[in-house]
Amino acid sequence: MPLRVHDTRRRKKVDFTTIEPGKVRMYVCGITPYSPSHLGHARCYVSFDIVHRWLEAKGYDVTYVQNFTDVDDKIINKANEEGIEFSQVAERNIEDYYSVMDAMNVLRADHYPRVSETIDGIIAMIETLLEKEHAYVGDDGVYFHIESAPEKYGMLTGQNIEAVRAGAGGRVGGTGSGKRDHKDFALWKFAKPDEPQWESPWGAGRPGWHIECSAMSLQYFGEQFDIHGGGEDLRFPHHEAEIFQSECCTGTSPLVHHWMHNGFVNVDGEKMSKSLGNFWTISQAMEQFEPLTLRHALLNAHYRNPIDFSEQFLEDGKRSQGRLEDTYREALLASDGGAAKNLTTLPRPNLGEEGLSHSMGMLEKLAEECAMAMDDDFNTREALAKINAALRQISNTLGNGLGEDDKRAFATYAVEWMEEFAGQALGLLPSRDDALAEPAEDPRRAELAPKVGELLVQRAAAREAKDWPAADAIRDELAALGVTVMDTAEGPVWELD
RNA sequence: GCGUCGGUAGCAAAGCUUGGUUACGCGAUGGACUGCAAAUCCAUUUUACGGGGGUUCAAAUCCCUCCCGGCGCUCCA
């Protein structure tokens, strides 16, 4: 099955091709670690984690590079405020990034280069650009001159340079006073006091914002690579700047074969931003919701479309994720009980039984459809619809009074099915150990347990005596504590709302 | 203004490239189960495709046109 990928430059889905057969070179713009990671980051890196995982599932050898922009105004300002080194601010937020991404089952990239470690490559690239007269040295820095390659303007945004020329004027801001033209952008900024700085042929300073990605991709991949990803907002100017820098430096075009951009996270219909005060860090969201719930919710929309982040959005994710984990646990237990960790593929169930044969057939069909959905520009929403159908199928079949051997074999097949799609491809399954483990004790729950236990004993007595009003009164009392009681065949179970 | 992405049932969100069959989920309603509930399961929720034209045997899907939103054009995933 061919993989189709939406390419921002060509503005349509195209067949995915690689420069080198079987190998994928993928670069995704990483964070500027000046503050803890927010939901926008979660969306971005979960989206590209899906790309990463699916390409590997399809047998590609993927090299995934993601940078950290650890030299930047905001980091420097933060460091100066706190009176610490810029690198300490960066380090702290990079740690936060790793920890929340790990929690959300985001697989690590192969390389995480940092600006502060790529200075030589950056300087070399700027030198070449100066030699080729695509850049010039101004009063306060070195700039890339857009008019030296006007044909590259608007590659990702469709903007027309003539229109921008016409609309120009009075836009040369304070940060770029040495610019010859307002469209030009900084490659190197000369040092100001209290700033980290490195020596260069043009004077001490630090890199401009865009150049590091060009230098890093050149360093790891050479002149061209297969996928470049990032948030929607990076299309312009950042990604277009990369095209200018890299292609003008190497003379090779196109720099990137497939440009991929993920959509935004909005909150209540508005763009999430610090200034609007509707800002959520990932850690904050995780105080209320499990990391995999967050991941599930994010995958419940197509990666290119905007998400409107709301309570409902997460509650839906929680419910779906809960059903997924419940079914997974059920299948694990049915497959081999406690030895489930060491599952091996058992013979297929006896297909002589009609219902079972039908069920297996359904799962095989759903597996195909799921793969097709992922092949269609990573349509996780569609894939989850197929997974839902599979969960229902699995759950029904397991509950349908199969013979013991058939049940175990079917459960094993079901476990493998779920691990292939929900697990490896979408990253939504916990480990087998975690899936089988008792849920971690909620401190609130531990606190309430003695009281609840006592009330449940009283209620059991009332029920035994068929004193329903008394039993219901106790249930109401529990409800007031936020406790929901569920009577099961094994006795009452309770949970906190 | 220029650019770009979108407008799909009560809510939410796939499908549009390659026209012809159901999305999936939430909610609601009914049923099974229960002392009653909860949880779970089953079923129903069908002139769903922004308006208007056009092409076609057939349009959510292709073409034209209009209306309405989001976002980008300054730092942002």
Protein topology:
Blueprint: E1 4-7, E2 12-15, E3 23-28, H1 39-57, E4 61-66, H2 73-82, H3 86-103, H4 119-131, E5 135-137, E6 141-144, H5 161-166, E7 185-190, E8 205-207, H6 211-221, E9 225-231, H7 235-250, E10 256-262, E11 265-267, E12 270-271, H8 282-288, H9 291-299, E13 307-309, H10 311-336, H11 354-375, H12 380-398, H13 404-425, H14 432-436, H15 443-464, H16 468-480, E14 483-488, E15 491-496
The protein binds one RNA strand of 77 nucleotides through strand 2, helix 1, helix 5, strand 9 and helix 7.
Describe it.
Residues 168-175 and 338-352 have low confidence and may be disordered. It is built from 16 helices and 15 strands. The chain is of the alpha/beta class. Helix 4 (119-131) packs across helix 6 (211-221) and helix 15 runs antiparallel to helix 16. The strands form five sheets. Strands 4-3-9-10 form a four-stranded parallel sheet, sandwiched between helices. Strands 5-6-7-8 form a four-stranded antiparallel sheet. It is elongated, with a radius of gyration of 28 Å. It binds one RNA strand of 77 nucleotides through strand 2, helix 1, helix 5, strand 9 and helix 7.
Task: Describe the structure concisely for a colleague.
With 497 residues, this protein is α/β, with parallel strands linked by helices.
Largest sheet: 4 strands, parallel
CATH superfamily assignment of the largest domain? HUPs
Q: Write down the overall mean pLDDT.
A: 87
Shape: elongated
The amount of beta strand, in percent, is 5-15%
